[in-house]
Specification:
The complex is a heterodimer of chains A (422) and B (274). With 422 residues, chain A is an alpha/beta fold. Chain A contains 8 helices and 19 strands. The longest helix of chain A is centred in the last third of the chain and has 18 residues. In chain B, strand 11 and strand 12 form a beta hairpin. Classes of the chains: A alpha/beta (422), B alpha/beta (274).
Chain lengths: 422, 274
């Protein structure tokens, strides 16, 4: 039980509690789901986390979430061109999934609304703990999304793109994806829109034995939107997950990444770029559990900070007692391009096994003057040269994805960001 | 304000007002120091390099050779406190490195930078087109660029595969030097400054690089070869040799001066100067 005393609700907390009362009769779900929703809203009622809650120390959510817009029934959102040109798009528009689901070989897609209505999704709505504010807000309000089931052994011919497009108001979605043993898939999760919306989106990825998944989250919400993302993954034996996270928008953004390497031989790769501009606040918080022996992971986060933007990366790696031979490496590098920008990094290693290799490193730098001089000495003007170097700093992690269409598509997203913020 | 801080392109439009001969490079009583700690490195240096001239700058370690090359290229870490650098009759002291490069000054670095994440081809394209733009020329399209690069790379015995890598990353010392000369060939500068281009080269690579430089010799292009050893000058035969010591040119002669230095070392000349 949450024993904290909250003397008074903030306007945002009050808006959430009121919205729940208003929406309750419209939200899908059987009794089991409704029990989860009630439990979740209690967590919100107890107060959103402040900086005194360790996992929210650098993002004082209660103070920073100043307003929550009401639902907007009139808003019209349209599906976007996919990030990867040949992808099959499954779009949720203003929180509503489509009933017209494309046929994809080896994949079964259902609307999440159905899974909520029949109660089968209730177990997945459990919260990770009292500090799981994103899970709580989403569990209280989630109305739709897609449930994607990739058959064992299936190799998807084209990438899948899960789109969550908002046009203002509130949107709460989930994307559970189950990848069968030995299957291979590339999945993009696109979080975007046009309004000053309040968005929560929770993903679940269950990776079967020996399956290989590339999962790419591209978040480019408008500069006045609040985006709360949570990505949960469980990697089975010899499974492989490469997660790429790009944050390139939003006023208040928190993307949580919770991954568990639960089968021997599981390998997790996290690569992320945070493009921070204006006066936005972007927080990427990762919790990774190496739960069994012989698993590995590497995490590299690169940040570019301009204007008065602030960023946070918290990376916590838990190596469980019996998880011998774990090999984990984490790095967070920030290029600070303005005097008013800020980036906070908190790496945490919690190791209960004694035969492991774990390391982390963090750097905050400005543009390398020697590099800048070299480029300028070839006739490239200072602005262009700086742009090239910033892009190079980010492109390095993107290029690790190796597959050319993916690299090109993500570099095009970088260019799009530089065109407006460079 | 007739362009004290104007870009090169503006100045190029003005007819030079000098009645005397226009000289590619004239350095007059140059004094310069390291910005960070104020150490004076160049102490009253005079040097004249005429159009088409290949001038060798020799000198012991610490004499200011590399500093001179950086100052010519416009590196901000050095501050000119006195004197003048005239390039085709115009002062370049107020120009930034990019403006100098666009005006035709090229520095082949002693230690070319490795820049991860910047594709070599992309860099060549941006650099070439930046200079073309500064000169009011149309940008080069990728196929034309590729053709030029292929031709230049073949002459320097360079593998095109290398150019697919990030700029200078993982290049051997010799490959980096070749890549510098490749850039020089593509950018077609008027004043080339080669800073210790021979260091780290084996004899075969040295010949290839020297051939590359010699191919660029022309009546309207000047080349300043900075070197510690005479070896390079057997392959790039200079018109003049200047000995730099404690930030000054202490002796000037023809190519025989280089041979004399090779035989007797710097000690004699330094004593003479002192």
């Amino acid at each position: 039980m949450n024993m904290r005393m909250q003397p008074q609700r903030t306007p945002a907390e009050a808006a959430l509690v009121d919205a729940f009362d208003e929406r309750l009769s419209l939200l899908p779900g059987d009794g089991a789901v409704m029990v989860k929703r009630d439990a979740a809203i209690e967590v919100v009622k107890a107060g959103l986390p402040t900086r005194r809650v360790e996992s929210w120390h650098y993002t004082d959510f209660r103070r920073m979430l100043t307003a929550v817009p009401a639902y907007d029934q009139t808003a019209k959102a349209e599906a976007k061109q996919p990030v990867l040109a040949d992808a099959t798009v499954l779009a949720v528009l203003n929180g509503v999934a489509s009933t017209r689901i494309p046929e994809i070989e080896g994949v079964t897609v259902s609307r999440l609304e159905d899974k909520l209505s029949d109660g089968s999704f209730a177990p997945a709505m459990a919260l990770a703990g009292p500090d799981d504010a994103i899970g709580a807000i989403n569990a209280a309000f989630v109305a739709d999304g897609y449930f994607v089931d990739i058959a064992p052994g299936a190799e998807l011919a084209a990438p899948l793109e899960l789109q969550n497009v908002q046009a203002g108001g509130q949107t709460h979605v989930r994307f559970p994806v189950r990848v069968g043993a030995g299957a291979k898939a590339t999945i993009v999760e696109r979080q975007t829109g046009t309004g000053a919306a309040f968005v929560s989106s929770v993903g679940h990825l269950l990776i079967g034995e020996g399956a290989d998944v590339v999962y790419i989250i591209v978040q480019d919400q408008p500069e006045d939107a609040t985006h709360l993302g949570q990505f949960n993954a469980d990697i089975g034996a010899n499974g492989k997950l490469t997660l790429f996270v790009m944050n390139a928008g939003g006023k208040l953004v928190r993307q949580e990444v919770r991954v568990r390497a639960s089968g021997e031989g599981a390998y997790f790769t996290l690569r992320g770029v945070n493009l921070l501009a204006g006066d936005g606040h972007t927080d990427v918080t990762m919790v990774l559990d190496h739960a069994v022996p012989h698993t590995g992971s590497t995490e590299v986060i690169r940040n570019v900070v301009t204007g008065k933007a602030r960023g946070v990366f918290q990376g916590r790696i838990n190596v469980h007692q019996y998880a011998q031979k774990t090999d984990a490496k984490m790095a967070c590098n920030t290029l600070l391009l303005s005097d008013d920008g800020e980036f906070s990094t908190k790496p945490e290693l919690e190791i209960f096994a004694d035969d492991v290799v774990c390391g982390h490193g963090a750097t905050v730098t400005e543009i390398d003057r020697d590099h800048l001089f070299y480029l300028m000495a070839r006739g490239i003007d200072e602005k262009t040269a700086r742009g090239l170097l910033v892009k190079a700093f980010l492109a390095e992690v993107i290029e690790e994805l190796e597959e050319e269409p993916i690299v090109e598509a993500l570099e095009a997203r970088l260019d799009a960001w530089f065109a407006t913020h460079g | 304000m007739a362009g004290a801080k104007a870009g090169w392109t503006d100045m190029a439009l003005e007819a030079p007002t000098y009645e005397t001969e226009i000289i590619m490079l004239e350095i007059k009583n140059l004094h310069a120091r390291i910005v960070e700690d104020g150490t004076e490195i160049i102490r009253g240096l005079n040097l004249t390099v005429k159009d088409g001239e290949v001038a060798a700058i020799m000198g012991p370690n610490g004499s200011g050779k590399s500093t001179l090359s950086y100052i010519l290229a416009g590196r901000e870490d050095y501050e000119v406190t006195e004197g003048e650098i005239l390039y085709n009759g115009h002062s370049i002291l107020e120009m930034d490195p990019a403006e100098r490069a666009a005006a035709g000054i090229f520095l082949a670095f002693q230690y070319p930078m490795e820049i991860p994440g910047v594709a070599t081809m992309e860099f060549l394209k941006v650099a070439l087109n930046a200079q073309r733009k500064a000169r009011g020329e149309e940008p080069l399209k990728t196929p034309e660029l590729l053709k030029k690069v292929k031709a230049a790379a073949a002459e320097l015995n360079m593998d095109m595969g290398m150019l697919k890598r990030p700029l200078n990353v993982g290049f051997s010392g010799g490959e980096k030097k070749r890549a510098e000369i490749l850039q020089m060939k593509l950018l077609e500068p008027k004043l080339c400054v080669l800073d210790e281009t021979d260091s780290g080269l084996d004899i075969d690579a040295l010949k290839i690089v020297a051939d590359g430089v010699n191919a660029l010799r022309s009546p309207d292009r000047s080349i300043v070869v900075i070197t510690h050893y005479q070896r390079l000058l057997e392959h790039i035969v200079p018109d003049s040799v200047h000995v730099l010591y404690r930030g000054q040119v202490v002796k000037t002669g023809d190519k025989s001066l280089a041979l004399e230095l090779e035989a007797n070392g710097y000690a004699g000349i330094i004593e003479e100067a002192a």
